[in-house]
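Lesson 9: reading folded outputs for more than one chain in a single document. The general rule is that every protein is listed as its sequence immediately followed by its C-alpha cells, and records are never interleaved. Here is the first one.
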Amino acid sequence: MARAPRQADIAAAAGVSQTTVSLILSGNTDGVRLSESTRQRVLKAAEKLGYVPDPVATRLASSRNHMLGVYTFASAFPTDVDGFYYPILVGIEEEAAALGQDLVLFTGTGGLEAPADDKLAIRRTRIADGCLFFGRQVPEEPIDWLLGGGFPLVYIGRRDELGGRIPFVGVDYVAASAAVVDRLVELGHREIRYLRSEDDAPSSSDREEGVLAAAEKAELDARRIVVRAEDAEVAALIERWRGEGVTAVVVEETDTGSLSAALLDAVAAAGLRPPDDLSLAVLGQPKDHPEVSGFEVPRRELGRRAVRLLVDQITASGPRIAEHVLLDCIPVAGSTIGPA
C-alpha cells in the first residue's frame, strides 16, 4: 500500500523548502514574507498529492485548526428531526459552515472507562479550538478545570454555576413565562396552576420565576400556583384541580417533553376541551401540537449564536470575558387559551 504524502513530497513538487510548506499549510505565516504565487503553488501541490494535515500537529504549530467541538454530558444527539436538540444542532452546523469552521462531535466517554462528566473524558475536547457544551446540569469540576486552563468554551443554556464564569447563550424564559401568565390574567383567570418537573435545572427555575412574578403582580395566591410532579401524577392532579375550580394550567416543556405530553394526554382522557373547559399553555412549543398556546424556544438561533460566541472567545486578543447572551422567545397565540 502506498504511503501517505508528506510535507517533503509537497516541497519537492512545489520547488520550495519544507519549512515554507509547513508555514503555509499551518497558516502560521505572520511576520513571514511569502508571495501569493508561492502559497498557491504549495496548496496546489498539496491538493494534487492528496495531502491531509494532521490536526493535532497543526494545532501545535499554529494554536488553531478551525475545529469546534460539540459535547454533551447527557443524551442530546437526536435520532429524528423532531428531537428537542435537532434545531440547535442544525443552527450549529449552519453557522460553523458560514464561518469556515469544522465540527468535532464528542459522544460521551469515547470508549474510556469513565463517566461523561469526568475531566479525563472531556480532556479530548482540547483537540478542537474550543467547545460547545449541552446538558441540563453542569458538572462543575470538569468545566472549572477547562476554564482554569484557558480553554474557550460556551454553554448552550443559561448557567449561573461557578460564580458566573461560564460563557453561555441561553433563552429569556423569565420574561416569556411571565407574558403567558399575564395573558391568562387579562382573560380573567384567577385559579391558575403551574406544573413543573422535579428537576432544578436553570431553565426550569427561570420559567417558575416568570410565572411567580406575573402571579404576584396580579395579586394571585402564589403559594398555590407552583406544583412539582412526575408524569404519572398528572392525571390525578387534573381531577383534583377540577374540584378546586382551576381554570388554567401552565406546564413547562423540557428537553424530553414528557411532562407536557402527560398533561395533554390527561386532559384528553378526562374529556376536557381546551379552552372551553380548561385553558392550557406550554412554556415551550411541544412537538406535534402547534395549536397549543405558549411560546416557542428559538433553538436554531440558539445554536448559531453559540457558535459565534465561541469563535469570538477563540479569537479574542485580550482576556476572555464570560459573556452571557439571552435570546427572546417567540410568542405562540395558539388556540388553547380562552376567557375564564
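And here is the second record, again sequence then C-alpha cells.
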Amino acid sequence: MSAPASTERLRWPLVLPVVSALVLAVTWFRHDHWLELTLVTVALIASIVAAVHHAEVVAHKVGEPFGSLILAVAVTVIEVALIVLLMTSGGQGASTYARDTVFAAVMITFNGIVGLSLLLGARKHHIVSFNASGTGSAVTTVIALAGIALVLPTFTTSAAGLAYSTSQLVFAAVASLALYGTFVFTQTIRHRDFFLPVSSDEQGKVTGLLDLDEDGHADPPPASAAWVSLGLLIVSLVSVVGLAKLLSPTIENVVSDLGLPYAVVGVVIALFVLAPESIAAGRNAARNRVQLSLNLAYGSAMASIGLTIPAVAIAMIWLSGPLELGLEPTQMILFALTIVVTAFTVVQGRAYTLQGVVHLVLLGAWLFLTVQP
C-alpha cells in the first residue's frame, strides 16, 4: 500500500512544471479573459512550488553552498531576461524599470527573506547562528555593488538626470562582473567553509560546522534524478517569469486605475520571481540552517545586481531612451537604514526574534512608501 503513495509524492513535481509550461505556451498570445488570467495565476503558483522542490533536490545532490548558488543564479538570469524584455516593450516606466526591479530585489532579499528566515528560525530554535565571516563578506559585496550601480548615478554629472554616461555604465558593468565573479570564487573554492551551516551552543555561539550527513535526511539522489530536477527547475523558473510577464499588463492596469506609482509593478513582479527563494530560505531556517537562508538572500541580491547591470548595459546598445539607475531620496534613505541594520545583524554571528522583526518592519516601510510615496 505504501508504493502508490510514494509514487504519487514523486509524480507531482514532474507534472507541475510541464503543465505550467503548457499553460504559458497556450496563453502567451491570448490572456485577456478572466478565466485565462485565473489559469495563469494558478500555473504561476504551481511553478513556484515545483521550483522550490527541484532546487532542493539539486542542492541535496551538489551540496552547499553550490545548491544555494544554483537557485540564486538561475532565478536571477531569468529575472534579467524579464527586465530586458519589459524594457524593450517601452511604456512609461521603461527608463526606471531596471532600477526599480533591482532595488526591489535588494529590499526583498535583505529585509524580506532575511527577516522571515530569522523569525522562523528563532521562533523554533530561540537563537539562530551563522558564520559572520562568510555572511559579512556577502553583505559587503552587495553594498559595494549597490553603491556603484544604484547610488553613484544619483550624484554623477556627466549625464542628465539619474543616469550614467556610456563610459560610466561600461565601468559599472565591468566592476559588477568583477565583484560577483570574485565572490563566487571565494564562496565555492577559496573559503567554502565560511558558507556552510554551523553548529552552536545554547547561547548561540558557533562551535563548528553542522554535520549535514547526520541530519536525518535521505541520501543524495542519483545523478540521473538530479539532472532531471535541474532541467525541471529551469522549466519551472522560465514558467514563473513568463507567467509573471503575462500578468504584468493586468498588474499595470490595476496600478494605473488605483493611481499608484509605476514602481509598484516592479515590486509585484519581483515578489513573484523571488517567491521560490523565499520559500526555500524559510524551509532551511525552520531546519536550523539559517546560514543557507542567508546564502540564498544575499546571493540573490548580489546576482540581481552583478548580472543585471552588465546585461542591461549590453542591451542599451539596441535600446533607445535613457536608463535611470540612480535611487530617489526616499529609496536611498531606506537602503541606508537597511545597510546599518544588516551590519548589526551580521556582525554578531547569531540572531533572535527581534532582528527578524526589525528587518520585516523595514520591508513593510519600503512597501508602504512605494505605494504611498
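What the second record shows: Residues 1-9 have pLDDT under 50 and may be disordered.
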